[in-house]
Structures are given as structure tokens and as C-alpha cells.
């Protein structure tokens, strides 16, 4: 008896949002992450978790998608104007830098002028808040 093995390579996306108190904003961003360029739901994209911290007014949305759907980043930029995407891990070609390496390279925690940053996709962040997304192929 032969068996076939289906391989599905996944990519994880962490959306960091400077908003938690207005739940509808966080939910609308999560919904936008599920849409393709035509506004239809991606069949291979799922929101796994939404964590919101009311005290710090921050939310994190964890999304999983097929590696074939890395166009998700472009779609997210299209549906959420002003967001910035920084790739890391296997999605960061050819360097494949880790999240820690990317943040150090960007000066993420020491930088004061975020407008000078060049994201992989989307607009340069005006400050260290708003919506940023990190994509990592697993």
C-alpha cells in the first residue's frame, strides 16, 4: 500500500498594531488581512490569534498562510493604507535575517526618526506605532 504525503509550507505573519481600545479597528485590520487584491477571502489564510493589551493600547494579530500566499503582504498594504511591512526569516530573501537581526539593523528600539526607514512593502512608518507587519516563512 502506498501513501502520499501532502506538504504544506506555512508562513506566519505578526501584525503589531498601536491600537487595542477600539476593538472595531483591530477587527477590521484582521479582516483586511484575509482578503486578496479583489476583496475576496484568501482560501489559505487564517487568523490564528488576536491579543490586545488595553493598558498599553497595543494589539498583535497572528496570521498563518501558505507560503504560496506571500502575496498576502502586498494585499495587506493595499487594504490597510499606511501600513509598513518588514520581512524576516525565510521571507527575507536573500539575507534570511531573524526578527532580532532585522530589529537591530533597523535600530527599531533606539531610533527616533522612523520616517527614514525603508520597509520591504508599504509606507515608511511615521513613528514607532500604527501598523507594522513581519512575515516569516516557516
Automatic annotation (TrEMBL):
Domain of life: Eukaryota
Annotated GO MF terms: folic acid binding; transferase activity
Entry-linked Pfam families: FTCD_N
InterPro entries: Formiminotransferase_N, Formiminotransferase_N_sf, FormiminoTrfase_cat_dom_sf, FTCD
Protein name, as recorded: Formiminotransferase N-terminal subdomain domain-containing protein
Gene3D superfamilies, per database record: Formiminotransferase, N-terminal subdomain
Residue ranges of every copy of the Formiminotransferase N-terminal subdomain domain listed in the record: 9-135
SUPFAM superfamilies to which the protein is assigned, alphabetical: Formiminotransferase domain of formiminotransferase-cyclodeaminase (SSF55116)
Amino acid at each position: 500500500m502506498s501513501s502520499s504525503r501532502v506538504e504544506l509550507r506555512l508562513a506566519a505573519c505578526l501584525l503589531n498594531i498601536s491600537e487595542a481600545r477600539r476593538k472595531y479597528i483591530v477587527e477590521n485590520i484582521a479582516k483586511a488581512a484575509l482578503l486578496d487584491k479583489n476583496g475576496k477571502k484568501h482560501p489559505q489564510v487564517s487568523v490564528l490569534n488576536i491579543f490586545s493589551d488595553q493598558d498599553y493600547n497595543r494589539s498583535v494579530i497572528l496570521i498563518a498562510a501558505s507560503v504560496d500566499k506571500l502575496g498576502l503582504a502586498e494585499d495587506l498594504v493595499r487594504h490597510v493604507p499606511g501600513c509598513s511591512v518588514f520581512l524576516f526569516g525565510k521571507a527575507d530573501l536573500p539575507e534570511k535575517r531573524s526578527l532580532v537581526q532585522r530589529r537591530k539593523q533597523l535600530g527599531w528600539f533606539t531610533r527616533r526618526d522612523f520616517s527614514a526607514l525603508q520597509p520591504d512593502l508599504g509606507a515608511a512608518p511615521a513613528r514607532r506605532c500604527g501598523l507594522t507587519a513581519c512575515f516569516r516563512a516557516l
